[in-house]
Amino acid sequence: MTPSRAAKRLTIVIPALNEQDKIADTIDGVLPLARELLDDFEIFLIDDGSTDATGAIMDEFAAGEPRIIVHHNAEPRGVGAGFEYALSRAKFDAITLIPGDHAFQNEGIARMFKAAGAADLVITYRDNQSDRSVNRSLQSHSLRFILNCLFGFWLSDYHSMIVYPVKWLRQIAVKADGYGYQICALISLLQLGLTYVQVPVSLNAELKGSSRALRLRTYLELGGTILSLLRRVPIRNVNLRQIPADAERTPAR
User: Fold this and answer.
1) Which of 47, 78, 142, 200 is least surrounded by CB atoms within 10 angstroms?
2) With bands split at pLDDT 50, 70 and 90, how would you rate the model's confidence at 209?
3) What is the pTM assigned to this prediction?
């Protein structure tokens, strides 16, 4: 008798700040894939203090899908705060964050959904970063090299989409916000020895213009995040005995 597979149930977080031109495309891409590939899901749409029509568009989607929850911040609080809001209310065992700026192609999101449950963590990596601006591409490759050298996990990417295990993520204290939140959470979980698989995803064509990721504040935030991780500050009150004895770091593509 063939054993039944584990149900794919996922909490999806989509944060956005003033993305009225892209948020509908993002949701229109994610929602059909969730309905097709997941056994059940919930979507938290986080309006992070937008001053344009982003929040109103989110409300329109929620009116047509009961599994969509919209949360409006009165003022911008950052990606980390929005993710923590959804994490504290997630009803499923796994959670992921998909940017609201339509950054990722739908084929990659589908691969991530299909891989959910294959390991404790599903870590996607962007396979077409060379298509972006030279500065943005150089920054991403440099950050990955530094993190790999410092922590030794040798991942293909640290800042793409990730499916996290809710029970473990709730047990760690992530001392970061904004750009550094996801890096802090991921490395903290890897330090616990959780298993993972890596899945390729592709970025949509990037619009020309200034990038938030290249600002001085971002570099300062990342520096603080890395220092806190080296001190192992993010990990506290975690019951290591609950981790399976055969847990291994197992990258797969």
Assistant:
1) 142
2) very low
3) 0.85
